[in-house]
Amino acid sequence: MKDFLWGAATSAYQIEGAVAEDGRAPSIWDTFAAEPGRVDNGDTGDQAAGHYHRWRDDIELMTELGLGAYRFSVAWPRVDPYGKGVVNTKGLDFYQRLVDALLDKGIEPWPTLYHWDLPQTLEDAGGWPERDTAARFADYAAIVHDALADRVTHWTTLNEPWCSAFLGYGTGRHAPGRQEPLASVRAAHHLLLAHGLAAARMSGSRVGITLNLTHVAPLGPADVEAARRVDGMQNRIFLDPLLRGHYPDDLPIDLGHVRDGDLKTIAAPLDFLGVNYYTPMTVTTTVRPAPTAYVGCEDVVQVDRGLPRTSIGWEIDAGGLRDLLLRLRDDYPGTDLYITENGAAFDAPVHDHDRIAYLHDHLRAVREAVAAGVPLRGYFAWSLLDNFEWSYGYAQRFGLVHVDYATQHRTVKDSGRWYRDVIRRSGR
Fold first, then answer.
1. For residues 348-386, b (16+ Cβ closer than 10 Å) or e, as one string?
2. CA 27, CA 17: separation in Å to the nearest integer?
3. Helix (H) or strand (E) holding 90
4. Separation in Å, CA 192 to CA 10, 164, 165, 272
């Protein structure tokens, strides 16, 4: 695929460690992980993959893999520790050095400004359900952009606001661990508003947002309405405000918190849309309603179709990626797309043939989508390194590179070498 960008992705809390060094303050994930029972095995991101001290070695690994770009996130509590717009110079300098070293190796830096690590002080003030958090994010975004815009072209404001809102404030499965469905809906809107406010302060750069989207299908004709509602709360609740300037009319929630002018701010033109895809969904209705991340869909459940699954339990179906990309082409035309995360958790330490098969099938879906006219410009594998996998702790490994957490030794997996060869062949 000509002029196609090949990269790999990580996020700050999942790999950096050094959570109390050089002026970094606690984030909601530090607080959440420290609470017993929140994270499997009691794991925390205190050390993670040690990237804060091993970033030079990790860039050498990126060079070995032939990456054209590296998608990483900037830790808000490392740069602006208390969310007050006050710069922590040591924290910002870390990302200055990282960007310079990437460019020296011919690797394009793709920073994400928010990958879930809200400063704890802002959560203490109410977190994302509070409108002021969006303004604080815009101040922080301007700090980082002003420091790096002379060297960075592509910027992502938010990673997966669905998770931040509905897992963080709805189900409580993610930090900050609140179970308040109405607050989760407000959080989703304020995350979108944060994106728009930040984008307005990042002129001269190519600015996008990354959404975790999926292909939602009904189990049968009687489940079409159920699939529509889940699609609304997973996909269209973000896609429509960003790309059409309004929320879907059929969302099963109250949007009374939306103020005049918000949607105009949110719908400022995107330079690209990042798509994170892992697994599709097939749904049906149930007679036993239960709490769910999909507010207003308590009577809908996901169906097990008996397909192979990754070690984290996610169904493997590359056709869902192709169908999703075709849907974006048809329903939201005119926006460049990038796969900003795609990968799988498997237990094999180094000889990870299951991961190779997963990536092979999903890259075939990518090629099919491009051949069908989808404006897909690049692909980032998730993830470069084994890392702290949020509430799953360290048991789930997504990396192209194995990390021995006791020694922090890195070993390129078979999938990493396979991906290197794919890049050399330009995706063939």
1. eeeebebbbbbbeebbebbebbbeeebbbebbbbbbbbb
2. 12
3. helix 89-104
4. 22, 11, 10, 15
Rg value, the chain, Cα: 20
Q: Count of domains in the chain?
A: 1
> What is the chain's pLDDT, residue by residue, as a tens digit (428 residues)?
779 999 999 999 999 999 999 999 999 999 999 999 999 999 999 999 999 999 999 999 999 999 999 999 999 999 999 999 999 999 999 999 999 999 999 999 999 999 999 999 999 999 999 999 999 999 999 999 999 999 999 999 999 999 999 999 999 999 999 999 999 999 999 999 999 999 999 999 999 999 999 999 999 999 999 999 999 999 999 999 999 999 999 999 999 999 999 999 999 999 999 999 999 999 999 988 889 999 999 999 999 999 999 999 999 999 999 999 999 999 999 999 999 999 999 999 999 999 999 999 999 999 999 999 999 999 999 999 999 999 999 999 999 999 999 999 999 999 999 999 999 998 76
Domain that holds residue 198: 5-424
Distance of alpha carbon 423 from alpha carbon 428, whole angstroms: 8
Catalytic amino acids? 341
Give the CATH number for residue 66: 3.20.20.80
User: What is the distance between the alpha carbons of residues 266 and 338, in angstroms, rounded to a whole number?
Assistant: 20
Residue pointed to by tokens 């994170």: 276
Is 154 strand, coil or helix? strand
pTM: 0.98
Q: State how far the Cα of 128 lies from the Cα of 118, in Å rounded to an integer.
A: 9
Instruction: Report how far apart the first and last C-alpha atoms of the chain are (Å, whole number).
Output: 8
Tokens 């469905």, located at residue: 181
Cβ atoms of residues 27 and 117 within 8 Å: yes
Q: Are the C-beta atoms of residues 375 and 337 closer than 8 Å to each other?
A: yes
E-only strand ranges, 68-227? 69-73, 108-114, 154-159, 206-212, 216-218
DSSP 425: T
